[in-house]
């Protein structure tokens, strides 16, 4: 019987962060869970592609758009389950047990990991706490990982080909079929350190609010790039 999970990772110049993300997946390979790892690259120029191929991952390429990249990666996947990760997210040890428990107990539902940052302190704890609360209310972001059956992914239409908020769009489509996995996704705090915890956290909230009020993903992405 083939391993059930296709791991899909969108990348763009991710050579620095990617090795830790891939190394954490070895646990799943040893547990017989991972069938393939697919990197959906948006035109990296820093050696991301060569690094991924060195790890034995499949690489698909296309225009740099998070939603479009995820859609291409998932389209190429052959597993009965999809595990979508960001390149700067590292699954904490024990994640494979959490995944197996979920697949055994909720065969038709999707799951997300509890978020933790790779930095200690009050600000990281508060931001992660808010993210986990938001996720419990049905709105996990992509940096928390997403595990779901391929059949469910197809049934809700998959990731939309849009440059921003693709994870929110899919979470909305999965509402009522999302649950927390008993595992942790450790994500990079680099952007928060560089931009400031309050500034970046506020900007993320404002972007989500604008999207909820009907702003287009293209306009939000342009605003995101300018700031």
Automatic annotation (TrEMBL):
Location of this chain's protein in the cell: Cell membrane
Principal location class: membrane
Lineage top rank: taxon = Bacteria
Tell me where in this chain the Glycosyltransferase 2-like domain is found: 6-110
Pfam families xref list = Glycos_transf_2
Sorted UniProt keywords: Cell membrane, Glycosyltransferase, Membrane, Transferase
Protein name listed in UniProt: TIGR04283 family arsenosugar biosynthesis glycosyltransferase
Species whose genome carries this gene: Sulfitobacter faviae
């Amino acid at each position: 019987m083939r391993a059930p999970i296709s791991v899909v990772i969108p990348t763009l110049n991710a050579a620095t962060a990617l090795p830790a993300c891939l190394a954490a997946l070895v646990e799943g390979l040893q547990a017989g869970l991972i069938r393939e790892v697919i990197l959906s690259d948006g035109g990296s120029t820093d050696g991301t592609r060569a690094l991924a191929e060195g790890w034995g991952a499949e690489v698909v390429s296309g225009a740099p758009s998070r939603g479009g990249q995820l859609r291409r990666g998932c389209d190429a996947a052959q597993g009965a389950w999809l595990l979508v990760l960001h390149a700067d997210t590292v699954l904490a040890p024990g994640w494979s047990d959490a995944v197996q428990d979920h697949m055994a107990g909720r065969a038709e539902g999707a799951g997300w990991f509890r978020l933790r940052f790779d930095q200690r302190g009050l600000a990281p704890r508060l931001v992660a706490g808010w993210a986990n609360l938001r996720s419990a209310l049905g709105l996990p972001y992509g940096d928390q990982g997403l595990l779901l059956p391929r059949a469910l992914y197809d049934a809700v239409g998959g990731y939309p080909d849009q440059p921003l908020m693709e994870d929110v769009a899919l979470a909305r489509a999965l509402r009522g079929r999302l649950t927390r996995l008993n595992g942790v996704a450790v994500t990079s705090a680099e952007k928060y350190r560089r931009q400031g915890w309050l500034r970046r956290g506020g900007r993320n909230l404002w972007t989500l609010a604008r999207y909820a009020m009907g702003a287009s993903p293209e306009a939000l992405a342009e605003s995101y790039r300018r700031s």
